[in-house]
Amino acid sequence: MLSGSRHSAAGVSIAIAVVFSAEASAQQLLPTIVVARPAARTVARAKPPVAAPQFIASAVNAEPAPPTKIVTQTQADKARAVSSFQKLIVSEQEVEKFGDGTVGDVLRRQPGMTFTGPAGVVKDIRLRGLDKGYTQFTINDQPVPTATKERQLQVDRLPADTIENIEIIRNPQAIHESGNVGGIVNVILKKDISNMTRFRAQGGRNGKFNIGEASALISRRFEDFGVLFSGSHFRSAEDIVEDKNTIDAKGALTREYKPKPAKKSETVLAPRLIWDLGGGRLTLEPFLILGAEHKNENSKVRNALGVLTKGTTNQEDKKNDLWRVAGRYDGHAEWFDWFVKAGAQEATLNKNKRATESNPKGIVTKYQTELEKVRERLNYVGVGTERLINYDLLVPQTHKISTGLEFRDADYDAVKRIAENGKSKDALRDRFDIHERRLIAYGQNEWHIGESHWLTPGLRYERVIRNAMDANYATRGNVYDALNPSLHYRWAVLEDLNFRASIARTVRFPKFDDLNPLVTIATGALAGQITNPDQGGNPDLRPEQSLGVDFGFEKFFLDYRGVFGVNFYNRNVQDFIQRQTTLEGARYVQRPQNVGDARFWGMEIDWRAPLLSLISSPLDEEHELFLTGNHSELRGRVSDAAIGRSFGVKDLPPRVTNLGLEWRYLPTLWSVGGALNYVPAFTVESIDGGGGGREIKSRNEQVLLDLFVAKALGPGVDLRIVAKNVLSIRKTEQTIKLTDAGTVVNAIEGKTEFSAPTVYFVFQARF
User: How far apart are CA 636 and CA 598, in angstroms?
Assistant: First the structure.
């Protein structure tokens, strides 16, 4: 019989035994059943990793921590070791070590992560190399609106200083979001309430621009009430220069030199309030992100002889705001725990863009303005239960049965207006409204079989009711139902060695603009024919369906100060969305369709080794040397239903490697470290998802190097110097545009980007 199991929400539990009585003959057939019912304000001690099931993951913050204590990577790896599903946990300690400015800076050092954006800038993370929208981002376990067509949060918007830890979930359980193919990135904001005050300030330069940040955290506990205030304001910049050469279908060469400077600011408020009310707990977690970005690009375009042909200017002001008001109540019934949650949230984008073209004499020949407004809201309400059952058959067994029901109401409204030389220009394709209602129900059982085996079957059901309205107020609606089963297995071969395997069905929902029912009539020569088709969206698109398999092992050593893990993955995707041209009536129309298939597979290795602890040396008492890193092999193929061939995945490198080294000198509390991100040169022939056809893109190898030096000035006070992109990364691409048949070259484009390094100081104090 097992007792003292932890409850994942409260982190505490006691066991109340209920013995089913019957006649003597019946008692020989019935097992002894124990139902675990957590009690309020009861703190249980953590068990060793093998004996304790999944609940130790919540024990990191189960007890009030000393004012200077933070979540360490050792604690995070202990939680990883006992989790019933495969996940990586990036601790608060690891986030602070490199003085990272944004979540993107943290994620690019993790296994399987690649990124797109300007050279050296992490804007859109691609988990396992998949395109934007294939990774599910959540904040505090809840999805958030993004006001982007791809439904994906831009990771350069969230300051790293607001993070307590990050979970990378490789294959979801039924309780997790299923709108992903690559995996889930769950960002957990500061939540530990332990009577601590924390202040952090940083300042420095990115190229010729000043950057800086100021943040504060105050947490206080008053008997049954706890409050945490976390706020941050940071200013960042991108000092990027682009040099581009283009050869069009007629063989004409143009050269463009374009500085692309950008200045950004983000203000984040993330308070947390907790009330212990009798046998339950009420938690309020609102947050607010106010972002602004300004770009001022000026370029010169020359012909093959170097003669100036035109000049362009591009000024863009953008505001991105995101807010959420969310609450949750966790209660206790006689035989189970329960919760109810609700939240209202909204993201908005306001963009004002002004562009000009001028002739070689500097006279403006074209003036264009673009106003874009996007509003996305996502409201939800949900309930759930959790029940622990222990009993003895041949061996002690534990079941943690979780059920839940949730309703979401979402709306995406986009409006764009374009004027050229004072006259309105058609922008109907960028004006639409998508309304989605979603009903979610799930159930799963974390089954602890004996001492060493955990099996977690689950089933998640989702019904999506969608209505899409275009700029002409034409409306189309549809309903989509999905059953997403999952099965996770953990075998604790030894106390510090796990074998893991999982299989889960997930989905990837279409981009919002692909759902726009509007058809734009083509103009010009052969309009409406196969070479110049009309363009349209498709509100009847189904989500892409993926069957994902993961398996591997993880070995922990030196009391969880070191780890070595290997994971293999495979994703088979059906209903893959591609643009396809078909005859509709008398005209050809190109739309996105569920006509393709895709497969993504690879291997991920991660490690952390305290080198001086592995050798016999008197320096062990004074020095620590840690080697960290990971290596990922990434593969993918996408079928082209039109011609029956398969191609590579756009911007997918064959591999990515991260290496990190940190040395600490304990007597004087100095530490020095660095991290290197390496992506080799590669060439990929892929389907051009934007306008049909294909493209061949080649990219040079890239080496991104970060360094830091830190000194502890006293208890809870430290100063560090951080240098990012030390090598001033150079990104070179060559792209060849092809038609569907692959025989006619539409354009050849060569582009090189240069980015400046970033250097800054970080001062931090805890008391």
Answer: 7
Asked whether the beta carbons of 697 and 682 are under 8 A apart, the reply is no
3-state DSSP of 721-740: EEEECCCCCEEEEEEEEECC
Using CA atoms, how far apart are residues 204 and 226, in angstroms rounded to an integer? Answer: 35
Burial (CB count <10 Å: 0-12, 13-18, 19+), residue 19? exposed
Mean pLDDT of 170-193: 91
Query: Residue 162 — φ and ψ, nearest 5°?
Result: -90, 0
Q: How far apart are the first and last CA of the chain?
A: 44
177-181, 466-470, 480-484, 703-707, range with the lowest pLDDT? 177-181
Q: Are 602 and 633 in contact (CB under 8 A)?
A: yes
Percent of the chain scoring above 90 in pLDDT:
61
Nearest C-alpha neighbor of 111 from the set 159, 177, 182: 182
Q: How many other C-beta atoms lie within 10 A of the C-beta of residue 267?
A: 15
* C-alpha torsion sign, points 648, 735, 147, 91: positive
Binned at pLDDT 50, 70 and 90, residue 183 comes out as: very high
Q: Quickly tell me which residue has 């970080």 as its tokens.
A: 762
* Burial grade of 23 (CB within 10 A; 0-12, 13-18, 19 or more): exposed
pTM score, whole prediction: 0.88
Give pLDDT tens digits for 375-399.
999 999 999 999 999 887 777 889 9
**Between vectors from CA 129 to CA 127 and to CA 135, what angle results, nearest 5°?**
35
- Taking the C-alpha atoms of residue 220 and residue 208, their distance in angstroms, rounded to an integer, is 41
Q: What is the mean pLDDT of the chain?
A: 85
685: β partners: 696
Q: Which residues contact 207 (CB under 8 A, 6 or more apart)?
A: 237, 239, 755, 756, 757, 758
Model confidence pLDDT, tens digit, residues 52-108: 333 223 333 333 334 446 788 899 999 999 999 999 999 988 888 888 888 888 998
Q: Is 342 helix (H, G, I), strand (E, B) or coil?
A: strand
Q: Of the candidates 182, 185, 183, 168, which has an alpha carbon nearest to the alpha carbon of residue 130?
A: 182
What is the chain's alpha carbon radius of gyration, rounded to the nearest angstrom?
27
Q: Is residue 640 within 8 Å of residue 646, measured between CB atoms?
A: yes
Q: How far apart are CA 236 and CA 462, in angstroms?
A: 40
**Is the per-residue pLDDT at 191 higher than 70?**
yes
What is the tens place of the pLDDT at every residue in 281-317?
Answer: 999 999 999 999 999 999 999 998 999 999 999 999 9
Q: Which of 518, 509, 393 is nearest to 462 (CA)?
A: 509
196-255 residue pLDDT tens = 899 999 999 999 999 999 999 999 999 899 999 999 999 999 999 999 998 877 778 899
CA–CA separation, 604 and 111 (whole Å): 6
Closest C-alpha among 534, 436, 518 to residue 469? 518
Q: Are 684 and 694 in contact (CB under 8 A)?
A: no
DSSP output for 634-651: EEEEEEETTTTEEEB-TT
Secondary structure of residue 231 in the 3-state scheme: strand
Identify the CA nearest to 553 among candidates 47, 81, 51: 81
Q: Of 428, 349, 446, 440, nearest to 390 (Cα)?
A: 446
Q: How far apart are CA 316 and CA 569, in angstroms?
A: 41
**Mean pLDDT confidence for 182-209:** 91
Pairing of strands 183-189, 135-139: parallel
Percent of the chain with pLDDT over 70: 89
For Cα atoms 582, 579, 482, give the angle at the middle one, nearest 5 degrees: 105
Distance CA 615, CA 617 (A): 6
